[in-house]
Amino acid sequence: MPLIRNAAISLLKTHLSARPDKTALISGERRCSYRQLWDYSHRFASFLDAQGVPSGARIAIVLPDGFSYYYVFFGCVLAGVVPVLVSTLLSRSEYDFILKDAEARLLVTTPGSPSGEIEQEHFRPVLVDSDESLQRALASYAADVVPYEPDATDIAFMLYSSGSTGNPKGVPHRHGDISFTVETFGKQILRLAESDIVYSSSKLFFAYGFGNSLSFPLSAGASVVLFPDRPTPNDVLRIIEEYRPTVFCGVPSLYNLLLKTSESASVFDSLRLCASAGEALPASIFSEWKSLTGLEIIDGIGSTELLHIFIANRPGASVPGSSGMIIPPFEAMIVDEGGNAVSPGDTGELLVRGSSGAPYYWNRPDKTSVTMLSDGWIRTGDVYRERDGFFFHEGRADDLFKVDAQWVAPATVENALRTHPAVLECAVVGRPVAGMLRPCAFVVPAPGHKESGALIGELRDHIRAQLPVHMIPVRFDFLDELPKTSTGKIQRFRLRDYPE
Amino acid sequence: MVVTVADLCALMKDAGIKDSVIAGLNAEIPLVSQGLDSIDIPVLAAALEKKYGVSLANVDSSKTSTLNNIVAFLNA
To answer: What is the pLDDT of residue A500?
Structure first.
């Protein structure tokens, strides 16, 4: 098997001579240069060597976004050890599952994380108090390790995909997968330059955040703004105002909340590009954002399995309500339930093929055989239709339901509902009513509005004016907030059984 | 607790069914004959299931065809 370049070397080495003192990472008042990043990453690789951690072993990283994340990640990759990027927001039982599933040889986490409470046979967790404490601890380790030379099939790192049901699945990626995403979304859509400053509200442990905050900016010699906590809309506004990023990557629900929070557009005047993924961006949010800031939100769709975005709008040519066009050399195909390509304009499940596709799910041959097809196509679970090369999201295959033999895409109803001024956020699911599935809506009311029969009647009329009768929600529940993943995706599956 | 026709009317109002529809209802006459449309019927069913914790999945439709029938069903 031919050797390929170590992913850490691919991303970092060129900067050591071209821009060693350039700021790579920004966290609060602190800065980390490309030289410092290179240095501490190598020292962490030396630390792993000193611990006797062999190449191919897995190390779980449960860290907030910060310099340490990069030192540990790149240190592992340099050593040929497989970093497993795990959310900081999980419960003890979820950590227990993932650490055992990945057979983690070591865990790097923060004091107080429930992941550190889990007893493991092989290790005591490495606790990182702060970036400074890790730097002090690594100072005595050598900065000149020989990087591991991978072959094309070697796993470089692993993410865990939460999925909507069941246990999370390990999604392994190879060294070349990062450079493939850089060549596609990174270079064709973001087109980052050294002068860019990137801020992503999505965290490094998600594929979307990983590309936004690691692969793309570091490949370009740009700078990354890091925020350790889960940002509120006010945090995001403060970060943008203080660090003046040129590129912001968010998710639709956050853009929606920013629109409702922002009093002035001037805070956004450092931005040249906004990106969105995670779920389909409603055309109404695209339009409102453009009115407020003058900027498009570049919407796209990606997945953990493909590592990042494979279909996206092109800057300056966005089609609101569309996820955009395929980014070559990714390929896309929409298929019916039998796996056959549908006629142009018809809906079906989106399949995608590209070199960054995960070869399998870790320890899950059953799921692998369902999702990773033998000819390289990967099932996305998203329902799409394509028109003139643009892909339009119709919902998750799991979320769609039929009413009176007609399909209902929750996003279609939500987009209509969200245009009513009394609706801050909403979600629509199919629930049985008198034994038949019907659309049911969950609404977070906008300030100054509250639940009433009159408002429900008004919302129903609002939908009736826009959509066919079978899409009108028969039940409205008003909530203080919607259940969401840590990236802000609405967890509709949790609403199907509401109240639990 | 005994459920009354007035309770059902209040429930319909809270579920967003229009006052003009509710005001003219005769408890003896099938609801579908009195201006409740194809959405109002499942709206009422959803409200009944939510409020009274019953499932109407396998209930004969004759038991919920009029307000009086619904009252009798819920009080049974």
So the answer is: 45
Which residue in chain B is spatially nearest to A460 when comparing CA positions? B16
Instruction: Report CA-CA distances (Å) from A24 to A17, A29, A142, A439, A450.
Output: 14, 14, 22, 48, 47
Position of tokens 């320890």?
A: A363
**Using CA atoms, how far apart are residues A299 and A179, in angstroms rounded to an integer?**
21
CB burial string A20-48: b at 16+ within 10 A, e below = eeebbbbbeeeebbbbbbbbbbbbbbbbb
Asked if residue B61 lies in contact with residue B44, where contact means CB atoms within 8 angstroms, the answer is no
Question: Rounded to an integer, what is the distance from CA A398 to the centroid of its chain?
Answer: 19
The closest of A239, A229, A236 to A250, measured between CA atoms, is: A236
- Complex confidence, ipTM: 0.95
Q: Which residues of A touch B15 (CB under 8 A)?
A: 453, 456, 475
Element (H, E) at B22: helix B19-23
A469 CB neighbours in chain B (<8 A) are 38-39
Q: What is the DSSP letter of B64?
A: G
Identify whether the C-beta of residue A324 lies closer than 8 Å to the C-beta of residue A141: no
Nearest to A321 by CA among A252, A421, A249, A420: A252
Select from A323, A438, A33, A48 the least CA-distant residue to B44.
Answer: A438
Backbone angles phi, psi at A378, to 5 degrees: -120, 130
- Whether residue B39 and residue A460 make contact (CB cut-off 8 A), yes or no, is yes
- Nearest beta carbon to residue B57 from set A432, A452, A459: A432
Nearest Cα neighbor of A134 from A70, A81, A82 is A70
pLDDT at A166: 64
CB contact under 8 A, A457 and B38: no
> Tokens in use for A10?
């691919």
Closest C-alpha to A420, from A453, A461, A475: A461
pLDDT computed for residue A301 by the predictor: 96
Chain A contact set for B57 (CB, 8 A): 432, 434-435
Strand order in the sheet with A58-62: A126-127, A104-109, A58-62, A82-85, A155-161, A169-174
pLDDT mean values, one per 10 residues, chain A (500 residues): 86 96 98 98 97 95 98 98 94 90 95 86 82 97 95 95 73 97 98 98 95 98 96 93 97 85 87 93 90 96 97 97 97 93 93 98 94 94 94 85 82 92 95 90 95 96 91 96 79 80
- Token digits of residue A100: 């055992």
pLDDT at position A1: 63
| Cβ atoms of residues A63 and A110 within 8 Å | yes
Report the candidate in A3, A108, A9 with the shortest Cα–Cα distance to residue A58: A108
Q: Which residues of B touch A (CB under 8 A)?
A: 13-18, 38-39, 42-43, 45-47, 49-50, 55-59
Q: Which two tokens stand for residue A90?
A: 């999980």
Sheet holding A475-478, edge to edge: A423-433, A436-445, A475-478
